[in-house]
Amino acid sequence: MMLRGMGFDNTTSLYVASGKIYNAEKYMTPLRELFPLLQTKETITSPEELAQFKGHSSRLAALDYTVCLRSEAFVMTQGSNFPHFLMGHRRYLYGGHAKTITPDKQKMVLLFDNPDIRSALSDCYPTCLSARRSWRRPEFRHVKSGYRHLASFHLDSQF
């Protein structure tokens, strides 16, 4: 739904970089209906090609990394090392102009927590998404840790 709200239509090719998805048929069907050109490791490789990677999670992750690295746009959905390394690598390769979408999870929670999701989609969805498209205008997070304040205090103070 987020991608549809941003203007991606059913002619958009999507690659889902993930491990084994629990009950994939049930949970991936709505996404596949919105984006019929949905791809995974299993759909872009033959069983023979994929067999050499079975049992090697790092090699499987490297396949995902390579596909995401060369993609036109990348949507970050989690805060682990994988997307952060990938974002940095894409910025380096494309001179800082790689399309990376980082959804604002706090606003998305408000949207999906609404029991009347249809009205939420029409009212909140465009504004919830438009502020976080990093290739247009990045938003900077405010650091709440006290460690930065201590470091700047010691650097600014004179002994």
UniProtKB/TrEMBL annotation:
Signal peptide region: none
GO biological process: fucose metabolic process
Pfam families: O-FucT
Entry keyword annotation includes Transferase: yes
Single GO MF annotation: glycosyltransferase activity
UniProt KW keywords: Carbohydrate metabolism, Fucose metabolism, Glycosyltransferase, Transferase
Classification via InterPro entries: FucosylTrfase_pln (IPR024709), GDP-Fuc_O-FucTrfase (IPR019378)
Family of this protein: Belongs to the glycosyltransferase GT106 family.
PANTHER family: O-FUCOSYLTRANSFERASE 9, O-FUCOSYLTRANSFERASE FAMILY PROTEIN
Protein name listed in UniProt: O-fucosyltransferase family protein
Organism of this sequence: Aegilops tauschii subsp. strangulata (Goatgrass)
Taxonomic classification: Eukaryota, Viridiplantae, Streptophyta, Embryophyta, Tracheophyta
